[in-house]
């Protein structure tokens, strides 16, 4: 009999603010995060861990992280963080000093490894301080290559904020990922990488990458409009907030599901005593 699957929930782009302030004057990001945490805690089966792929807060301020920390502490399972372009490394580290997997210094990218689960987790800091776009430094890629090379037989998830590919959404692609081809070359040498899990786009997307799959996660509150014009304006909407649920089983591999938060009509049966309902 195969072991029970290991479930990894991924949430992203929380954009939390302090003082009950609405993000962009419209979005109740705190209320949305609370609904997301409640949903994950009540899930059956419950996820074993949560990974959060960046833009934890909106302006990287200490008061925003001080609001965020107790909200995430309500999760009934371990959770792991990487920064996004809205985050500030030193303020994130100061608030989450209890997260011992994180580096102790913000002078370098906040890269980390967690070995405690059936899948290995590697966090990559793709942020460029003060910029919107992303990159992974040559020094980070050398580190990643070495870390992946240590355990080539262990299924691995890479978590970072920026997807290292062109998405087709014009305003998000204007600051393109700087060295995606080099990162693809490194990851391509390590077939145990099951997924590259990203945020930033506030939408679910998938792309083949380095012989694996790179996917982006919906936001916990607002979503970027699906507009594939080159001159797409920078705008968002309030489509249903969502998350990704990655199901790992050693015999069956990794399957990724797209979920939505909130209560919706149903469930309804397909069948009654007479068979398929007509």
UniProtKB/TrEMBL annotation:
The keyword Hydrolase applies. Pfam families: Metallophos (PF00149). InterPro entries: Calcineurin-like_PHP, CNP_phosphodiesterase-III, GpdQ/CpdA-like, GpdQ_beta-strand, GpdQ_catalytic, Metallo-depent_PP-like. CDD domains: MPP_GpdQ (cd07402). Residues 8-204 form the Calcineurin-like phosphoesterase domain. It is an enzyme of class 3 (hydrolase). One of its GO terms (molecular function) is 3',5'-cyclic-AMP phosphodiesterase activity. Its EC number is 3.1.4.53. This is 3',5'-cyclic adenosine monophosphate phosphodiesterase CpdA. It comes from Pseudomonas graminis.
